[in-house]
Design a protein that fits this description.
The protein has 168 residues and is mainly alpha-helical. It folds into 2 domains: 82 residues, ATPase, nucleotide binding domain (Nucleotidyltransferase, domain 5, 2-Layer Sandwich), CATH 3.30.420.40; 76 residues, Nucleotidyltransferase, domain 5 (2-Layer Sandwich), CATH 3.30.420.40. It has 9 helices and 2 strands. It has a two-stranded parallel sheet with strand order 1-2. The longest helix has 25 residues.
Amino acid sequence: MGLTPLDGLVMGTRCGTIDPGVLLYLQQHEKMSVEAVQHLLYRKSGLLGVSRISADMRTLLASSGTAAREAINLFTFRVAQQVAMMASTLQGLDCVVFTGGIGEHSHEIRSEICARLAWLGARIDPLANDEARERINSHDSAVDIFVVPTNEELIIARHCAAVLQAGQ
């Protein structure tokens, strides 16, 4: 993320990185107010805006609709794009870690992202991926690929406890 949570990956209702010219277009040609553009970018964009169905990846994966498939394709493209940019910066890629809601629970999304990263040597073991094993890369993968469960609430609670303890 950048200054706000709008930058970066496309999300459930947020657009992710966007050409600044779009904002000018919406205000100048569509006559949208600043508040309307803000509402659009934060609440009506992302997976919801592209699919016009849902911000929930599970719903999109269950849908046979073209717009749902477009939202999924956009998401997997943008994740792979971000990984490729990081790999370029780091001059290589040692591993990919999938975590959080989608990364932890969607074998379809993991598979599609890794297919887009095959040129970097990322190869998935389909059975390990379907079973969400901790390590899901195939034996011939140049990149280690992991699925790591997360507990965001626990991490937040630990940080809050540390801050409260430091304040005493």
